[in-house]
């Protein structure tokens, strides 16, 4: 029997140790219900949820996305310091940011080569390196 979007969303929440409230399950189903990874903004996820049965406010979407990140289910990718995208793919990988459409997609990690990073300041360690490659038409 095929797994439903709601079942996938509920299992995803359980992996993060989150209580499956109706609103969380509805948003999780939109994010991972088809088994694919995706990049969303709070606004785009809210727009996708408007047609669903479970109504959620934009503030709830923001709070829920933060909870998903804190639970290790998603990662936040910040573009331009003020625009955040949320990615369901959790391994380290680079991104393309398409300036024309303001969208974010995965870039081929096997083509990225970082030869050296600067030393971290005393008492600090490098936790993560985010690579966002901005694209625009010529």
Automatic annotation (TrEMBL):
The keyword RNA-binding does not apply. One of its GO terms (cellular component) is cytoplasm. Gene3D superfamilies: Winged helix-like DNA-binding domain superfamily/Winged helix DNA-binding domain (1.10.10.10). It comes from the Bacteria. GO terms for biological process: negative regulation of DNA-templated transcription; regulation of secondary metabolite biosynthetic process. Keywords: Cytoplasm, DNA-binding, Iron, Metal-binding, Repressor, Transcription, Transcription regulation, Zinc. It holds the Pfam family FUR. GO terms for molecular function: DNA-binding transcription factor activity; transcription cis-regulatory region binding; zinc ion binding. The keyword Membrane does not apply. It is found in: Cytoplasm. Belongs to the Fur family. Homodimer. This is Ferric uptake regulation protein.
